[in-house]
Amino acid sequence: MARLTLKTTKPIDRTASPKTPTARARRALRGRKPVKPPAAASAAQPPPSGQPPAAHSTPVATQRAAPTSARTDARTAEPSTSETRRVARDGKDARRPAATAKTRDAAEPKAARAHPPRHEHPDDPRLSKRMSELGLCSRREADEWIENGWVKVDGEVVTALGVRVSPRARIDIDPAAARHQSEQVTILLNKPVGYVSGQAEDGHEPAMVLIRPENRWADDPSPTRFKPSHLRGLAPAGRLDIDSTGLLVFTQDGRVAKRLIGRDSPVEKEYLVRVEGTLSDDGLRLLQHGLELDGVKLKPARVSWQNEHQLRFVLREGRKRQIRRMCELVGLNVTGLKRVRSGGVPLGPLPPGQWRYLRRDEAF
After folding, report:
1. How far is 276 from 308, CA to CA, in rounded Å?
2. pTM over 0.90
3. Catalytic residue list
4. Which of 153, 248, 308, 351 is the 20 to 30 A CA-CA neighbour of 134?
5. Domains 127-182 and 268-342 are alike in CATH topology
6. Is 121 helix (H, G, I), strand (E, B) or coil?
7. Domain 268-342 belongs to what topology?
8. Are 126 and 154 in contact (CB under 8 A)?
9. Is 254 exposed, middle or buried (0-12, 13-18, 19+ CB in 10 A)?
10. With 0-12 CB in 10 A as exposed, 13-18 as middle and 19+ as buried, what is 136?
11. Taking a C-beta distance cutoff of 8 angstroms, is the pair 322, 188 a contact?
């Protein structure tokens, strides 16, 4: 007779923790996406009757709050669908972190962030302006000297532009700046008709093109030898109209430029003006003092007859086309205008279209 074998089944303990799946079970489940039961359904399902709640189960209040927290975390961690589409359309990475101040500072060149040091007295003048007021150099030259380390303020070298200094501060200049300044030249040109003073305009060449070695006056008394570096930074200190002739000054020295064309320049400019028309005594007095241009009263001028067709003007200002407009106001027509002197420097016998150096013993 066959022997009967009884198999004992162990009762299920619902309070026990689930067993760890075996390696075979993990291989079977690999690649499958587990199905998560609805949170609401699991939360609403009561425990079997007569049994206490499981030790690891979560209270109902906690289960209800968990989805809200999860949704909040999801919104914080991942962009919304509409935002993802917008970022993808703009060609930007939605997960790219925003640039911090430290990142911006690292990417921005240090020179672009450089600022002059703060000054405790903001009403004090800037160093370059103070140097110009003292007659040491022009403001443009002052900036160059400061950058080169040639300027000391109260014994300390200053290399930052825009620094403010006390009017009582002691300013010392390195001898290298004086040597640099002594090498700068000033050139006198007798400008002919048809050339403009500054930049080329309306097909007319600038008078600067005439400053070439072959155009230097053969009787120039200056011993200075021409160098191409003399043209570097050379600029007109004043202007003459296209149809005017005479003395036109070019300089590399900012002090000369300021003296000739500064707002309060004391330098006289003398002109010989050929005119047509009749000038009464009242008209002559108006030319000397009493006319306005563009609503601004002109400074007094010295005007007299040089001969029956020519007037002599001596001015201390240089408004645009000033003499021609002054003559029009008193009924005169200008047919020729020539500048013959600037300060203490006359045009002299310098031929039209030629130039010479300003001598050491000459001053405007």
Report:
1. 10
2. no
3. 241
4. 248
5. no
6. coil
7. Alpha-Beta Plaits (3.30.70)
8. no
9. buried
10. buried
11. no
